[in-house]
Amino acid sequence: MKVVIKMAAVVLAAMGGYFLLSGFMAVPVSPHVLSGTRIPPLYHFPYRQAGLTERQAAAHLLSRFTYGARPGEVDAVVQMGLESWFARQLEASLPDDSVDRRLTQYDALTLTNEEVANTYPRNGQVLRMAIRDGVIDKDSVKVDRAAYRDVLQNYMQEKGYKREQELFRQFCCQKMLRAAYSENQLLEVMTDFWFNHFNVSITKNDCAEFIPAYERDVIRPNALGRFNELLLKTAKSPAMLYYLDNFISSAPVQNDTSAQRARGLNENYAREVMELHTLGVDGGYTQQDVTEAARVLTGWGVYPIGEFAKAGRAAQLNRWTDEQIARRGFVHDGDFFFNANRHDKGEKVVLGHVFPAGGGYQEGVDLLNMLAHQPATAKFISRKIAVRFVSDDPPASLIDRMAKTFMERNGDIRQVLITMVSAPEFWSPLALREKTKSPFEVAIGAVRALNGDIRQPMPLYNWVTRMGEKEYYYMAPTGYPDRGTYWINTGSLLNRMNFGLALAEGQIPGLQINLLALNNGHEPESAEAALQVYGRILLPERDLTATEKRVGPMLYDKGLAETVGIIIGSPEFQRR
Fold it and tell me: Which InterPro entries match (predicted)?
């Protein structure tokens, strides 16, 4: 424990000083061959102008566009060519047999929202269905809670229902496995980026069960596509409609006192789609624009999902054919439903653009498309991408070039990334090792570097949570802040130290590490020798002088596992 506390103090001091490593060294690592043929480069990375060798540049690419280099991966990238490797990652079509095999045990991952609702109903829904079916008397629920819980459990088993927590467990497990083992690393990184940008949270009951499909069907397939298409799909997804309450937003109707219509206009989504998803807080919109946008988006909701919803007030809607729905001006698209009766049909004006009276669903599509193509949106999104991949405070010159590409290429995310990585600012010494790793990046990066075998992902997920990042549970629509100051404090560093030691010492259940196999079955003769061997594995292409000076005094009489754990907890490993 003394070592951990002392190490945390060392790391905190180093992080506070923004330790930048100015030196690099090329080191031999075991070969790791990526499948596929070499792709001719279509662009050029100016890393040599920044004074980097090809191997150093490869390590930098891997630190930004993957969850960490595996042993030998720097060699593979150099052999393929940096530009060719990046082109393959942009395609995101590499075979992922290893991940697919690991995911076969999670049967919930392929379920539609309809199947999820019918298999993993929320607790309140189960209770209401049991009361409806006469299994439980509604007046006795509060009298004998223990008895009714037993009856409810039997009812769930008879119906084949499963607890929602099992759905969420499988969902969290798949994220750990995809990040650790997918060959399409850029796709996984960008999926994480966009999920955080269009954040929804399991903590909100209404949307929770629809979040797995939200990531699978909305975020991941569009993570490297066009921004306007991604924006529209998030806006129409049940997860977002429930999370930001747009499903209840409707135009006021005179002489209609029903609870559903009395809810009226809800501005939550309209506000966040401008402030967080497109224009940014300084994007030039007003409160009046928010109100008008909310009016445009009235009537956007969710088609009844699951037998419980279909048996309720929406039973009549479920009996209509698609032709009958369309004839009434409604729109049914998968789980999305536009209710023309709840839509404000008056004239609206957003950012000076007039939406004539009498419009319907299409004006909502037009609004989102307009927001997606605003210059303020191009700059806001470009800056956010640059913050993720370059530095906490990226140069304005880089943001401007990325925004120009965004506008000229119709929000093509791939082209924006190419512009960024082809820019001198990406390779500048000011950008190297500038980003602080999130807890998720620390955990997955260490597992990848040490060729860890994740048999049971939840213990590793729990460690990420302990370090301060509970995936899918962040409550605010902002998503997790992407700044080093958010992640680094004394308490979080102690947990990072303890994680490194637990991982290296094999104390994380369901996760196997073979340290000797990484050194051809040989154990280094001393802690100092171990620092050299495993430092090169965990910190590829870096000059280890600073690490040796910082952690060397702590290695006296330390075994191999503890030495590796100290490296994982070092300031150098906390940055990418």
Answer: DUF1800
Q: Write out 109-139 in H/E/C secondary structure.
A: HHCCHHHHHHHCCCHHHHHHHHHHCCCCCCC
Q: Tell me, what's the pLDDT at 3?
A: 55
Do 231 and 370 contact (CB within 8 A), yes or no?
no
The pLDDT of residue 545 is: 86
pTM of this prediction? 0.90
Residue pLDDT, tens place only, 342-378:
999 999 999 999 999 999 999 999 999 999 999 999 9
What 3-state class would DSSP assign to 252?
Answer: coil
Could you tell me the two tokens for 314?
């929406």
How many DSSP H helices and E strands does the chain contain? 33, 7
Query: Computed over its alpha carbons, how large is the radius of gyration of the chain?
Result: 26
- Measuring CA to CA, which residue among 518, 466, 373 is closest to residue 69? 518
What percentage of the chain's residues is helix, strand, coil (to nearest 5)? 55, 5, 40
The pLDDT value given to residue 50: 96
User: Could you tell me the CA-to-CA distances from 13 to 455, 468, 494 in Å, in that order?
Assistant: 36, 20, 13
Give the DSSP letter string of 140-177. TTTT-HHHHHHHHHHHHHHHT---HHHHHHHHHHHHHH
Q: How many CB atoms lie within 10 A of CB 74?
A: 25
- Residues 422 and 52: their CA atoms lie apart, in Å, by 14
Worst-scoring range by mean pLDDT, 8-22, 233-247, 380-394, 397-411?
A: 8-22
| Interatomic CA distance for residues 299 and 306, integer angstroms | 20
Between CA 128 and CA 147 the distance in angstroms is 16
Beta bridge partners of 333: 336
Q: What phi, psi does 400 have (nearest 5°)?
A: -65, -40
Local structure of 453: helix, strand or coil:
strand
Assigned token pair, 576? 């990418």
User: What whole-number distance in Å separates Cα of residue 522 and Cα of residue 534?
Assistant: 12
Task: List the end-to-end C-alpha distance of the chain, in Å, as a whole number.
Answer: 26
Q: Which residue has the higher pLDDT, 40 or 457?
A: 457
Neighbours of 240 (CB within 10 A): 28
